[in-house]
Amino acid sequence: MSSDCIFCKIANKELNTEFIYEDDKVVAFNDLSPQAPVHFLVIPKKHYSSMNDITSKEAFGDIFSAIPKIAEKLGIKEYRTVVNTGVSAGQTVFHIHVHVMSGREFTWPAG
Ligand code: DGP
Predict the structure, then answer these.
(1) CB of 18 closer than 8 Å to CB of 29
(2) Can you tell me the distance from the alpha carbon of 57 to that of 45, in angstroms, rounded to the nearest whole number?
(3) Which end of the chain has a smaller Cβ tally under 10 Å, C or N?
């Protein structure tokens, strides 16, 4: 837990954010600034500032194994996953999170 981290506060249930999924390792909630009709974030409960701080396979497994379960719960079969790592890549919240977006067409490469 990092005391000044907004996503730690969310994971710790300090901000009354509604979870669309929770297990013992991760939580998922809708993005405040959705970029698609479906846009949620999956975060580990444990604080890692970014992808670069994750050293265990388990952490990735916890995050990514939750995604298809959430997708099934929401009834989505096609979606884009994005992890921004570092300021130049668009990371604004320094607690690793996976964006999951669906419900529209996506272009490639992403801008
Ligand atoms: P990124 O730019 O990859 O670091 O994405 C951060 C995302 O987090 C951005 O899409 C907006 C979202 N976000 C920031 N603060 C909050 C918050 O307090 N609640 C929710 N639900 N989402 C937030």
Answers:
(1) yes
(2) 15
(3) C
Whether pTM > 0.90 for this model: the answer is: yes
- How far apart are the CA of 91 and the centre of ligand 1, in A? 9
Asked if 44 and 59 touch (Cβ cutoff 8 Å), the reply is: yes
Q: Which atom of ligand 1 approaches the CA of 97 most closely?
A: 3
99 in catalytic set: no
Chain segment 47-99, per-residue pLDDT in tens = 999 999 998 889 999 999 999 999 999 999 999 999 999 999 999 999 999 99
- The residue type of 4 is D
Percent of the chain as helix, strand, coil, to the nearest 5 = 25, 20, 50
Bridge partners, residue 20, by sequence: none
**Which residue is associated with the tokens 């272009």?**
107
Distance CA 8, CA 95 (A): 8
